[in-house]
Amino acid sequence: MNDLYNNAIGHWVIVIVAMSVLLFVVLTATAYTVWFERVALGRIQRRPGPNRVGPFGLMQLAADGIKLAFKESFVPEKTDKLLYVIAPTIAVAAAFMAWAVIPIGLWYNVQYWIADVNVGILIIFAVSALNVYAIVIGGYASNNKYSLLGGLRSAAQLISYEMSLGLSLVPTFMIVGSLRLRDIVEYTVHWGPYNGPLPLVILTPLGFIIYLISAVAETNRAPFDLPEAEQELIGGFLTEYSGLKFVMYYLAEYVNMITVSALAALLFFGGWYLWVVPPVFAFLLKVVLFLFLYIWIRGTFPRLRYDMLMRLGWKVLLPLSIANVIVTGIVLVAVQG
Amino acid sequence: MTNENKNPTSPPQPSPASGEGDKHSVAADVGALLTGLKTTLSEAFRPAVTTMYPEDKTPRSERYRGRHYLRRYDNGLERCIGCELCAAACPVGCILVIAAENTDENRVSPGERYAKTYEINMLRCIFCGYCEDACPVQAIVLGPEYELSDTSREKFIYTKEKLLEPLPPDVQARLTTKEKK
Lengths: 337, 181
What we know:
Chain A has about 325 residues and is mostly helical.
């Protein structure tokens, strides 16, 4: 497969096939993530969750999707029509673009990726930052005070947490010496008798915790879902959206959730390496565990107040992540000389 | 907090701006978060409390006031004697009774008269059960059924045919054999 990449035509064929497969896989994964979340939240609240459509309610998302697709494509009056339509498109495009650089180990020595970029993680950050535009533009274009407030909150929140998110990963790059996701996954150590891949969480536990918290804020999920805040902002930037445009925002949220889970697995838990488990199952298992963690957190913690959110971002996570970078640098210099 | 308690005579200090004066220990805060996570996870493994509604139903009291039934005696005669006391007792006036005389050829109820028409407008009915209380012969009773939804307003006017209990099986059998003869 690696030979085909070097062939000009073979490369494009592979990329196009990979993109189509990816779209299908990620969309399916999103659908079942939503199902998984609803069932898990139901269990936490001692409900069974969706269980009517298909076996174990597995077809629930198909039913929901069809229902939303057939809804009237309603655009409220006095909105900025163009921006109103563009905003959810940005959200979906940004969410899917991140997957261009995420590699997946399919089998031993067989890996899948669309673009093996040497600054892969930077591209993911750049693209996920576009999500702010989707929310702010959507909030502005809706011409609704709640939407606008949701959009502004989102802008402030994402800017605050993006910094600690980025900085939390810097120690990882310093240890591995590369921004390429594949290099980070394949990071191996030669510690005496042990010679093999090492989950980086052992070396940067603090970075992992900061990443975990910032990633929840970055995907606008509870307890950091202030842009939506259905109780106080009646849905925030989503207030005026319905039908397929709502689906796009919804889809983007869950794709982002899978993206940050996959990134956590890749960056901190050795990606597709897990003892003797076949790579693709190991990767899947790790992603599902992270998804469950996010759902679990959503089912447990109440939403933060806005000043608490800002305080946590600026006064706790940011100094901690900067300190983490400095300490890691000092240790690295001390160890490597 | 501890400094304030040392000197009880000092006036209460204005609490410092949130965030500045928090003296919680980080370990205790994180421990609280973990306790929350533990609680929700342990709840997730306990059985669901949901009643699978259309298949299972929650038990109802014996005195539950659902839709009405018009009862019969064991010999198949209707209990209702067309006295209209139920209609008079009804606070929303949803019961319509038009009585007719019983004759020897056409004996419907043991009394002098019987209800020729008996209609209840279920859209109006408030299920108070006053009709049941007012009835001198226990002809109208409120049963346990509560799933009364339907597709048009007309269907909510329950006629006598709909309200009346079916004939007791032995009477039904006697009547059918009589018809065959």
